[in-house]
Amino acid sequence: LAMAAGGAVPLRVCNQEIVRFDLEIKAAVQDIRDCPGPLSALTELNAAVKEKFQQLRSRLQELEQMAKEQDKESEKQALLMEVENHKKQMLSNQAAWRKANLACKIAIDNSEKDQLLQGRDTLRQRKTTKESLAESASNITESLMGISRMMSQQVQQSEETVQTLANSSRTILEANEEFKSMSGTIQLGRKLITKYNRRELTDKLLIFLALALFLATVLYILKKRLFPFL
Where would you find the membrane-spanning parts of this chain (predicted)? Predict the structure, then answer.
């Protein structure tokens, strides 16, 4: 009786540890199924599960050995049946472990693919932004070239106006020489020449003011387009 009482304690403890390891393995398998990655985290979880399986096998071997040492055949067969049930449960846990690993690896692969696609989308967006900036710069350049052409045309028109005025001035001087040769109309010629000279000065002044206003307008437009923050 003393031996029976002494043997009941390790048998009960062994059963309790088998049940505990079984529950811990199930929880760890669920953790693997829910693991978001990376692979290093999955490797750590698998190492823990592997250790639990080794501990469970050790306890099953101890329980099987205890069953074989039982004096009563009925108790022996009952314990062996219990060991067999535990082994079947362990095989079921191993199958669930493999399935959880497969599902987790597929999820990690899909996540890495999604991250890769997102990275490609980001690069594509950056490329589109650069192309848009290049197009904007090209449009600004074309606008500046248009302004430059317009300024060139205005300058050319101004030169033509000045040339016209110069021609008019020469005509007036020639007329003045002709009037000098006319003794009867010298006074009238002088008055006319004075009048034309005054008008010429006024025209030059007006043209100068017009050119100054035009240049100021062009500079203002360039400032607003090229340096809008000033």
Answer: 205-222
